[in-house]
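[09:14] KT: can someone run the structure on this one? pasting the chain below
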Amino acid sequence: MDITAADVFPGIMDLSYFGFQGDPDDLDALGDNMPLWGNEYRFPLEDLKKLDIPVANFGPVGKDDHKNGERIFLPYFLDTFPGLFRNFARYLAEESAGD
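[09:31] RB: done, structure tokens below
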């Protein structure tokens, strides 16, 4: 299995409040395309535009996220993910030690 990095916005999640590095005006499209924006769902868009916090989202590869049939691909989760996460944590520790 190949691991790649991609700039995507698959949906709202906890990490959605961090790490946006584009033009702040680009986020206005988010509100324009969300049902119930400003009525039933409150998202601190103006606060988000002020943040610049790097984010790495590590998690399982699977299907039907957040649905009753959600499932993960076990070979990735049990074999690939632990080493990937360990190497990433080591990289972060080495980078922060150099500061």
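[09:33] KT: thanks! The CA atoms of residues 58 and 85 lie 7 Å apart.
[09:34] RB: yep, looked fine to me
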